Amino acid sequence: MTEFLLLFCAYLIGSVPTAVWVSKGVFGMDIREYGSGNAGATNTFRVLGPKAGTFVMLVDMLKGVLAVRLAYLAPYYQDHEHLTQLVNFQIGLGLAAVLGHIFPIWAGFRGGKGIATLFGLVLAIQPVVALCCVGVFLMILFLTRYVSLSSIIASIAFPVLILYIFNEPEIFYRIFAIAVALMVVLTHQKNISRLLKGNESKVPLFRNRREKH
């Protein structure tokens, strides 16, 4: 019963529609009516700029971290004897938050793709792997200015790191890493199509500032 309540709480945390509240509260518009129509960090970067996009991304990441931390409220997982079960339950909590982000109860079940919240999940469980994925994301973003492409490549790097670099022994986590990469690729089909056609929008970074001078 405790686990079910915590999973529901994780879903509610994930349901906080950061991009929607920021776009409506600060900019007087609904982010879902512009750009790709997604209520996530990528579309916020594209439509509202880097400051709003960065804020949305950080809060959406925090949702994943907080959801994973809920596991420690369950007495069963508070000792080292159940470490494997703890990691599995943490992944479940994180996925519940991702589900909330994609289908937020606070925003008519129309949310984003859950990439930042997924990253928060990984950050809470394996921070070193998460930071490596951040490095990949930032490198691709700096080189291309495509948030979608950066997310896709960073997600593919995730199972590569888990399976081959860090050699994670927990089978469920290995499956989870592969599933994350597949999910990100599948949810970015439209972005991939636009990338191949050269129609994907870029985010303004330092390069834009230099181009103005």
Automatic annotation (TrEMBL):
Pathway: Lipid metabolism; phospholipid metabolism. The chain crosses the membrane at residues 52-74, 86-109, 115-139, 146-165, 171-187. One of its GO terms (molecular function) is acyl-phosphate glycerol-3-phosphate acyltransferase activity. It is a multi-pass membrane protein. The keyword Membrane applies. GO terms for biological process: phospholipid biosynthetic process. Keywords: Acyltransferase, Cell membrane, Lipid biosynthesis, Lipid metabolism, Membrane, Phospholipid biosynthesis, Phospholipid metabolism, Transferase, Transmembrane, Transmembrane helix. Belongs to the PlsY family. Catalyzes the transfer of an acyl group from acyl-phosphate (acyl-PO(4)) to glycerol-3-phosphate (G3P) to form lysophosphatidic acid (LPA). This enzyme utilizes acyl-phosphate as fatty acyl donor, but not acyl-CoA or acyl-ACP. This is Glycerol-3-phosphate acyltransferase. It comes from Chitinophaga jiangningensis. The lineage of its organism: Bacteria, Pseudomonadati, Bacteroidota, Chitinophagia, Chitinophagales.
